[in-house]
Structure formats: structure tokens, C-alpha cells
Amino acid sequence: MKAGFVGLGSMGAPMAINLVKAGFPVAGYDVRAEAATAFAAAGGRGAASAAEAARGADALVLMVVAIAQAETILFENGALEALAPDAGVILMATCPPQAVADLARRIEATGRAFVDAPVSGGVVGAREGTLTIMAAAPQATFDRFQPLLAAMGSRLRHVGESAGQGATVKTINQLLCGVHIAAAGEALALARTMGVDPAIVLDIMSGSAATSWMLKDRGPRMIRDNPDVTSAIDIFVKDLGIVLTAGEQAGAATPLARVAHGLFRKASAAGHGAEDDSQIVHVFPTLT
Amino acid sequence: MKAGFVGLGSMGAPMAINLVKAGFPVAGYDVRAEAATAFAAAGGRGAASAAEAARGADALVLMVVAIAQAETILFENGALEALAPDAGVILMATCPPQAVADLARRIEATGRAFVDAPVSGGVVGAREGTLTIMAAAPQATFDRFQPLLAAMGSRLRHVGESAGQGATVKTINQLLCGVHIAAAGEALALARTMGVDPAIVLDIMSGSAATSWMLKDRGPRMIRDNPDVTSAIDIFVKDLGIVLTAGEQAGAATPLARVAHGLFRKASAAGHGAEDDSQIVHVFPTLT
Predict the structure, then answer these.
(1) ipTM score of complex
(2) What structural domains does chain B harbor?
């Protein structure tokens, strides 16, 4: 199975390299030419355009920033028609469920297959091939692309047969992640205001029923000055925005996600959008 | 060290029994006479009143429902003056930090010591002696009562020297617990509304960065009909109320706790206050 890969960023590059390591011939493209060069140095084939990456491929993996980019690549830049006639498009970016379902219809209208397959697990998971992949596609399509997906994520789950269901699971994942980060910030900011050492609180909470994966991961960075950026505040402005839109379209209330989104937006509006998302902790003292 | 123990409920009874097992002579009292009888059958000494439980004791442990009960027991029912002159009062219930600090002052004015020592870990932790105890007291007082506390909880932490700091840590614990339960409900309710199997979502989220202790504990009961009651919705109406009051008194914003409190209150107002707190999941479809 010959693959094209578009989007060789911090997630995409290691994912594409894992495909190469698994023995798939992969042509990779990124808007930053140096990313394709680095991919070629790592054993892949660098492509000069998305259409070139797609040419004759059986599968085109898209690990782009947003669904608008996927649409441009497929329909305006010629990547879809460059694919083999029975190829599949595998969208792995975090996108709104309804938009994913719409995109699937347009792709399937050309006779090609579509897999809605967003991921969770971050850069570490991408590098180590341990990503969680939430894949939605008809069973036969899922079975066909299963080896390719399994090369990128050891936690591959078939969550449904309809495009948009993978995006829905990822949306819910981001709801919990975003709310948990904001809750950790609310808790540690409250500790500081009430005169209890946040490090003691973090230590106790990390081992009690109050713990979360995010508390343990982001908490230490919340009580440290100038931590590294592992994931930016603006990612959750975007992803919680997707949660709210998905909830509205489905007629479902998401009151905690709404508050968390407001907190990330407030941090971003104050100029902190590119900072580590743990820095949401500093928004709370500015609220009254 | 001779101990009195007031409040032999689902938490207090196993805690008092662990004191007995550790070799402390303990006189136990509860408003339900049968609780004191059961305690006597388990090796303790049953007392007919709080003052009788306190008489001549070096330590009086209070595991009551609310701080008003502690005040009544100590000042109106004669338990404080029944204690040895240099005894200590150990308050282990979940109470508002400011009220705990006020209570400490009144007790210390009589020459007696006070330990602010709420717990986390539930009935299982109480029974197995693995509770987390968040103890605040001057160092010498903490050292003096350390053996007694350690007999009830293997995770004993000295969080500060001022009464109210233990209650503050517990308050923050409950903030995270309450928000995480509500977030799990919001996530699983959204899954159902959007047409994805909540069991698949729960399985994936439990192993991803989206996980929390509460998601893994309450999540399975959210997707099951009529689960057992392990902790009631009304507990979080009370405890998140304490969070909001503490935040207001400290001038700290707690926007996520506020929303979560509103959700638990709404469930309680609809008649579900005595149900398992996992049943908060059913509130979301009623919001619009």
C-alpha cells in the first residue's frame, strides 16, 4: 500500500516516519519545504506539492491544522484527483464532526473511501507509535486501512461506521482534557489565594480521588515559572470551540466546556495564546 | 492516649474501629444508639452521650455531618469541658475553612488543642485505614496526635500550622472531585446525544489524557441503570457549596465549581439528591 502524507508538523512528521519504518512507501508534503527535506532524510520521499504526495497513492493521510486546509488540499490543489481511483483519504486532524461528515460525502462522491481517524496522545505518542486512534469508517474500509493506522497508533479503536463519529469521540476527549486543565488551574489558583502551598495540594490531589491525567501532567508546570510549551493555550481555544459548536449542532448542553473555553479565550486575548496551556492557572486571579 | 469518638456513621465507624485495632481505648457515641452498640460489639466502648465519650479523654475525634453539629456537641452538650484540660479536639468532617478557623479559636481559648484534619478516600479508605488525612495544626500538636491520625489513614499529610488549612485542602479536593464527576457526565451525555456509544467513549477516555479518577470510578455507573449509591448527589451540593463560599470569602473566582454546583443542585431539586452522584449524567439532557 503506497501512501501520501500531508502535514509534517510536530505530530505528522513522527507519524509519517512510523509508516516508513513499518515498510510503507510514503511521499510526504508540508507547506514548509524543510519539513519534506527532513522527512526524506528520515527515509521517506519528499514531495513538492500535496498533489505530488497523493499521485497514485492508495491512501492519503492528512494531518493538517484544520479542516479548511484539508478541503483546499483535496479540492483546490488537486490532491484528490491525483489519488488512485479506489484510494482512501484518512483525516487524522482534530476537526468538527459535522464538517468531517460533509467532507466524507464529497470524497465518497468521487468513488474514493474516507476514514475519520483523529488521534490522541501528543507528540510523545506520535513518536513512539502509541497514539490512540479513534477511527470511524465502514467495516470493510476500516479493515483495508487497518495496517496503515496500526503503524501509527497502538491503541487503534473502531468507534463507528459513519464519518464524524471519530471526530465526535475526539471532540469529547478534548472536552474532558480542556475542562480538566482548567479545573487543575482553578484548584491550584484557589490554593494560592487561600494561603496553602500549591505544591502540597498538588501532591495530595495527585494521589487522591481528585486526580486526573491532566492534573498530574500540567499541575507541575502550573506551579513552576516559565515552563516549556508542550501544547499551547490556543489549541484549546480551537478545540473547545469545536466542542461548543458540536454540542450546539446536536442540541446538547456543554456548560463546563463553555466556561473552560471562556477561560482559555480570556488567556489568549490577554496575549498568552502561544504559552503552555498550563498557564491558564494565571487567568483565575484576574477574574472577580 | 485515651480517645473519644463522635459520629459512628459509614465513615466514622470503621475509623473508630481502626483506632481500637491500633490499641487506643476509644469511647464512641452516635445519635443513633444502635451505632454505639455496634461499636461496642466491635471492641470499642459505647457511650450514651457525646460528653460521656469525651469524659477524661486526651483526644476527641469528631466525624460529624457538618460544623454546626461539632459546635453543638462541644459547647452545648458539654463535650469540650468533659475532656482532659490539655486534650485535643480533632475535627475530621468536611467543613468550611473559615468556620474551622473560628471553631479552633474557641477551643484553644479553653487551653485545649485543635487539629483540623479532614479526610479523603471514602468508605473503602476508612475501612482499610488508607484514608488521606489533610492535617493542619501547630507542629507540636501535630506530632502529639500523629499516632492517632496514622491509625486511621496511611496517607497522613501535615499541610500547614493554621486551623482552616486542612479544610482548605479538602475544599480544593472536593472542587476537583465535583467538577470531574460533572465533566464525566457532560462528556458521556454528549456522546449519547451525538450518536456514539458511551461505553466506547468511556473505554477510550479511561486510557487517554482525558482520564480522571472520577471518570474511571463514576463513568461505568453513568452508563448503567440504577447503580448502587456510593456517594449521593446531595454530598456535592453541600461540598461544592463550601467551595463557593470559601472562594467568595477569599476573593477567588471558582467558575467551574460554580457551574458544577448548579448542576448538582438542579439534580437535587428534581428529586435525585439521594441518588448516586454518577446520576448527574441525566441532568444534561434536561438543559437547553
Answers:
(1) 0.94
(2) 3-162 (3.40.50.720), 168-286 (1.10.1040.10)
**Would you name the residues of A annotated as active-site residues?**
170
- Does A160 sit within 8 Å of B197, measured CB to CB? yes
Q: Which residues in chain A land under pLDDT 50? A: none
Q: What are the pLDDT digits (tens) for A150-175?
A: 999 999 999 999 999 999 999 999 99
Per residue in B73-117, pLDDT (tens digit) is 999 999 999 999 999 999 999 999 999 999 999 999 999 999 999
Asked whether the predicted pLDDT for residue B226 surpasses 90, the reply is no
Residue among A159, A254, A288 whose CB faces B200 most closely: A159
Are the beta carbons of A183 and B256 separated by less than 8 Å? yes
**How many pairs of residues across A and B have Cβ atoms under 8 Å apart?**
238
CB pair distance less than 8 Å for A263 and B255: yes
Which chain A residue is nearest to residue B251, measuring alpha carbons? Answer: A288
| H helices present in chain B, as ranges | 12-21, 33-41, 50-54, 67-71, 79-82, 97-108, 122-128, 139-150, 165-193, 198-206, 213-222, 233-250, 255-267
Contact at CB, B173 and A214, closer than 8 angstroms: no
The interface residues of chain B toward chain A in range 45-74, judged by CB-CB distance below 8 A, are none
pLDDT value at residue B236 = 97
CA distance B253 to B265: 19
List the 106-145 stretch of A: residues with Cβ below 8 A of B.
Answer: 120-122, 132, 134
Contacts of residue B197 in chain A, CB cutoff 8 Å?
A: 159-160
User: Is the pLDDT assigned to residue B252 strictly greater than 90?
Assistant: yes
Residues across chain B: 288
Dig out the grid coordinates for B188 from the structure: 458521556
Query: pTM, whole model, 2 decimals?
Result: 0.94
